[in-house]
Specification:
Elements (H helix, E strand, L loop, with lengths): L4 E2 L4 E6 L5 E7 L9 H11 L16 E3 L3 E2 L2 E2 L4 E6 L21 H8 L15 H16 L4 E9 L2 E2 L4 H5 L5 H6 L9 H16 L6 E8 L13 H10 L4 E6 L10 H4 L3 E3 L5 E3 L7 E2 L2 E2 L4 E7 L9 E4 L5 E4 L10 H22 L5 H8 L5
Antiparallel strand pairs: 1-2, 2-3, 3-7, 4-7, 5-6, 8-9, 8-10, 10-16, 11-16, 12-13, 14-15, 17-18
The structure holds flavin mononucleotide.
């Protein structure tokens, strides 16, 4: 199956199926000398674990990462970094039944149509477990970016019809450390107490009806310099959109005001420029969400991702079985009643991978950068 690789400067290839021996990633292109240990990667992976919340699958996924290569004496060596998580606690028999029909909203029908054969145990590569490799690689990318002052704030903006009321600007204006604290204060990663309470009630109702819910994840990235992203096919916003839409169950992507910009006027939508007091230029607003012409403009990057409701629900649905008969099914097994909270760290990982790729790519964009790196070197 082609298409499991992303990026060239900081290239990743994810591998593995949910009910095989394990899942993982190979990172090729991480610069040498980055301090890195398994605990830092584990901290990211722990954010996508089902955990104790009743709003995630009751599957117990320990997901302990092992660093197989590319790190020596606590630092990256510049060689490929292989990361692996073994699969334990698979209940393949839970999936025996779905071998006989196509789950509505899942990838069974299209995988069969494409390959004529599929690993039905947990969905194979279409399983949420495929995102483990992305999150492990994203942890390394985020570590690299943190060293140069680039920070990520990713959280649940909405679940079903319940949304937080604070804007990205209001959240970023919170005192240092308060936004991270608010995001990690509850298992839904929703940084507003009243909205989180209402979202729990919404989810309880969905669970009672044996149904599932979707939602919106918002991402804010601060500390980005001007100039990240390339002008035509590798625009920063285009690459972010591709990275996000490659996550299972993600159905929409917006940057800045996104679809709302379509109803605005030019005067209202444009971010005016003003001279700052250090001889540079700043923007008076950020409707663009930090990208102009596909290139970062120095303001915080603001984006949103729409996640559909979990396709596997116990509520009755119509489908077709192997014999070509119309049947009604109720899907059992251990599924997430809502994917959004577990996908928050997946979105953050994909954002970090997109930024690190374009940031490393940008090192060769100007002669003064090339001089800074190589000008003083004499062999
Ligand atoms: C972190 C994560 C967890 C997921 N958990 C489930 C799950 O428990 N049950 C399920 O049916 N789908 C789950 N999905 C969604 C499916 O992977 C996805 O809907 C499927 O691959 C079909 O792709 P599409 O929805 O993009 O068309 C999960 C996705 C992610 C990213």
């Amino acid at each position: 199956m082609a298409g499991s690789s992303l990026g060239k400067q900081f290239g990743i290839t994810t591998w593995g199926e949910s009910h095989g021996a394990g899942v993982g990633v190979v990172i090729d292109g991480c610069p040498a000398g980055l301090p890195l240990c398994a605990e830092e990667i584990q901290a990211f992976l722990d954010r996508r674990k089902p955990g104790a919340s009743r709003y995630a699958t009751p599957r117990k996924e320990e997901d302990q990462v092992q660093i197989l290569s590319g790190v020596f004496e606590g630092k990256t060596t510049g060689t490929p970094i292989a990361l692996m998580v073994e699969n334990h606690n698979q209940h393949s028999k839970d999936y025996k039944e779905i071998a006989s029909y196509y789950r509505p909203g899942h990838a069974d029908y299209t995988y069969d149509g494409k390959y004529g054969f599929r690993d039905y145990r947990g969905g194979g590569r279409s399983s949420g477990r495929e995102t483990i490799g992305r999150v492990a690689a994203g942890a390394v990318a985020a570590k690299l970016l943190a060293e140069i002052g680039i920070s990520f704030y990713t959280y649940t903006k909405a679940i079903g019809t319940v949304s937080i009321s604070k804007t990205p600007e209001e959240l970023l204006a919170l005192p240092t450390g308060e936004l991270k604290k608010a995001i990690f204060a509850n298992p839904l990663y929703m940084p507003e107490v009243s909205a989180e309470k209402a979202a729990r009630a919404y989810l309880d109702d969905c669970i009672k009806r044996q149904d599932s819910a979707g939602g919106v994840i918002e991402g804010l990235i601060t500390g980005l310099p001007v100039g990240i992203g390339n002008p035509v096919f590798d625009k920063l916003d285009a690459n972010l959109a591709k990275a996000m839409l490659s996550i299972g169950a993600v159905k929409g992507f917006e940057i800045g005001d996104g679809f709302l910009a379509a109803a605005a006027t030019g005067q209202a939508n444009n971010d005016g420029f003003a001279a700052d007091n250090r001889g540079g230029v700043k923007k008076n607003a950020n409707h663009a969400g930090g990208v102009l012409g596909g290139i970062s403009d120095g303001s915080p990057l603001i984006f949103r991702v729409a996640v559909k409701p979990t396709p596997s629900v116990s509520a009755l649905q119509s489908t077709v079985n192997k014999e070509g008969e119309n049947v009604t099914v109720s899907i059992h097994g251990r599924h997430d009643p809502v994917i959004v909270p577990r996908a928050v760290v997946v979105v953050e990982a994909m954002a970090a991978l997109t930024i690190v790729e374009l940031l490393l790519d940008n090192l060769g964009s100007r002669m003064d950068y090339v001089r800074q790196i190589y000008g003083g070197l004499r062999v």
